[in-house]
Amino acid sequence: MNHCYLFIGPSGSGKTTLAANCFTPDQKIVSYTTRLKRNGEKDNVDYHFISNKAFEDMIQQGAFAEYDCYDHHYYGIAMSSIQEALKKGDCYDPITMSGFWNLRKKFDITVVPVLIDVSKETIHQRLKYRQASFDEINRRLDLFSEEQKQYPELEKIPDLIKINGEQPLKAMIQQLKANLL
């Protein structure tokens, strides 16, 4: 059975970096977002960067397997994208907590949660290193605190892969690779 590994963790946890180091670029599900591109990101590679209007049109058309509003921006995975990716083999995507729950309802054990467990202090330092504004850091830390409330429920899932996000990237990669199904 092919699996879709869904990387869950706060902004700055390393989920995108970890996933990119453990999978090939063609295994990534390119999801949609209305947020602006960050430095180095490419349209149709990192995300499909679209307008609010285009995103809302896709919602009306029922195009999304899941979507969410996170930090004032829409994020979503098209149903066709995840279905095509799973036909080819294992795939992955960084995702919000609610996005994971929505996909789990639709795809059951085909989607495997990968939780990057990291401290609030580490997130704060990484966001500062990313040169996030004071307001953005505070917003993201508030979102992190809210998401942490869902960790106990997530930890009940037998196929959860929990990664220690405090360790160096090389150790995180080894931990993930040792736990892939």
Automatic annotation (TrEMBL):
It comes from Candidatus Enterococcus ferrettii. The lineage of its organism: Bacteria, Bacillati, Bacillota, Bacilli, Lactobacillales. Keywords: Kinase, Transferase. The keyword Transferase applies. One of its GO terms (molecular function) is kinase activity. It comes from the Bacteria. Belongs to the guanylate kinase family. This is Guanylate kinase. Residues 2-181 form the Guanylate kinase-like domain. Essential for recycling GMP and indirectly, cGMP. Pfam families: Guanylate_kin. It catalyses: GMP + ATP = GDP + ADP.
